[in-house]
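Please check this:
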Amino acid sequence: MGRRRHRRVETVVTKPALEELELFDPLAPETHADPYPIYAALRDQGPLYRTPREAWLVLAYEPAVTILRDHDRFSVEHSRYRKKREDNLLGPTERGLENIMLFKDPPDHTRLRDLVNKAFTPRVVERLRTRIREIVDELLDEVEERGEMDVITDFAYPLPVRVIAEMLGVPPEDRDRFKGWSRGVAPILDPDLDEATFVRVAEAGLALAAYFDGLVSERRAHPRTDLVSELIVAEDEGEKLTEEELRATLILLLVAGHETTMNLIGNGLHALLRHRGELQRLIDDPSHSRTAVEELLRFDGPVHLTARTAKEPVEIAGTSIEPGDMCVVVLGAANRDPAQFPEPERLDITRHPNRHIAFSAGGHFCVGATLARVEGEIAFETLLRRFPKIAPASDDVRYRATVTLRGLEALPVTF
């Protein structure tokens, strides 16, 4: 039988008119369905765009990478917390949340990251492959006879939650409790929170903190071979990890440990279902799974943006940035910059090279990137091998309201 040829479908991007952009807020939740034509139109005007919220939107690849790697002139500290700290107005919840590693600059970030890195080395993650395959097959076994599922609820969410929960040592009966808490905490990564949202974040954060306080107490009395026990040992051996940092790190590992992979699988499968030629290429040749994951991360990644605050005057791509200015690096826009990626609007599961920044860059490159990649690779390869006739069950696809984390509410399919 001859080798099947696949026709590549070119994606035509219809960009908004310039007058439409003048009143447009790119960070507004209503743009989530498809922000990419807007980003392309804005980038045509220049690599940086001043938003109605008085933040700089960084849309091009080179300035994005420059800012992400420049820890001397740009800070990750949340501007909201910094101002309140200066005014001595930080509440207990904010003091807890500001201990999250994502909001810390070196040297504190480096110290915390070095502790966590040991659990996510490529060697450690490779040892998890067999267990990840077992979990994937168990989840697909549960839905096979139904002939349909919601990819998010039945597959993309429980897979990474079970993996990270087992790594942390969370009992199986407690896993379902995390979904609401994680959804509640997720907006803390957004660059601008209203008071109502912050209250919900605080409530979820306190619930998670209370849970992990109990788990830490239990592990202090009865240590095991899990990540919680290892972090406790690191804390007890010196001043490397405070009690507040331990709690914040556990919350971050749980939330980030499953949100990234859940969105990778959901967004990625949605993209494949809209590009049937590429879906069929992957079904026909599963050896493309690794490069497919990289392309899906680039095309519609799980983390859409990240923020930095200028610490001193700096010029980026011909634009003068003042101290205190927030620069919102739109990873999704940078990953479709035609100066870096030929035909960026086309999905190509064999794209190479593919130097996307879906996991950020520099010192804050995602610590769990290797784990997310392996989970995604196994998930797509197994799902498409077992259910090659997979198809969307509905055209009504909605993205969650979070700005930083980009993920679907649901993705119903038949197979």
Remarks:
- Confidence is low (pLDDT under 50) at residues 1-12.
- The domain at 31-414 is CATH 1.10.630.10 (Cytochrome p450).
